[in-house]
Amino acid sequence: MKTQILIKTANDWFEFSKSKTGQLDFVGKWENIDIPDVEGYQEFVSSTYFSPSWYIFIQSAMNCTPVIYVDSKVDVSDKDTFNYLVHIGPLLAAVEAKDSLLAGELFLRRHEVFEKFAQLTQYIMDPLCIEILFSLCYGKMSNLEAEEVPLIFERAKDKLEFDSSRETLDQAFMRYFKNNSVTLTLPLVGTNFYHWDDDIVPETLTKITDNLSADNLLDCAEKISSAKHDFYAALKVSVQAEPYNQADKNAIIVCIENVEAKLFGNPGLEKAGHIRALAAKIIREAKPKKMSYASKLDSLHYRQIVVQLTI
Questions:
Q1: Nearest-CA neighbor of 98 among 207, 189, 11?
Q2: Which of 5, 29, 193, 246 has minimal CB crowding within 10 Å?
Q3: Across residues 124-147, what is the average pLDDT?
Q4: In angstroms, how far is CA 141 from the centroid of its own chain?
């Protein structure tokens, strides 16, 4: 029997079903090691509300255009169902990749679509709901209030065991982080003070393709793009406490290898920015003896630098 609806991301297949009454359900990640047979299925790509083409670098799990495969016997012509299917792929990939910031941003971009299938979306985001809420409310400079994302807040509140009568949300996160290891993706602030990203696509890197003919360029395009991706993914990232910072004793500094220096074979980290002060305060007060955090570069998007760290 053919699977009804499948969504393929960079690394995974996800399965949905639609009942005779029109109920759309999420079955889960395809765990079969075999590639599913989608011969005869309708095939369409996800909406351009997310595109890896916007990024200079993005982690491999998100470097894709999700594809939706629908069994010919399944009707997805309903506007709400179709909209949901063409938008949910990137959100599925972001949750699976533990990219809490991007998952939250993707939800906010098309929340009207996702909220029409509220229980389904809530279930999909459930494994990462605490991290998503933290990245949106504490990592970004937009001062988003938790109540503005009730679909995420309600599930995170249950998992945090948050009781507003006895603690603030800040305290709830501190308590949770104190007792749990958590992976977060957070954007850097203050990057304009350090200018690490002024040369993130240095002239040396772009000159690699200067002397290639059109035919050679087509032949080499995949290798070049793969090499550039691997180059950025391999950049060393340091995220550590900065208790000597006179302006903020809870500051967390982020340093990243200099791109141009690395191309010439020279090591060396440079300051790239900080974790936002409010997020840093919660992280540092939750685990005051932890001074460094396992980390890696998550994405580069125009002048936004995002890192993934485990606390």
A1: 11
A2: 246
A3: 94
A4: 17
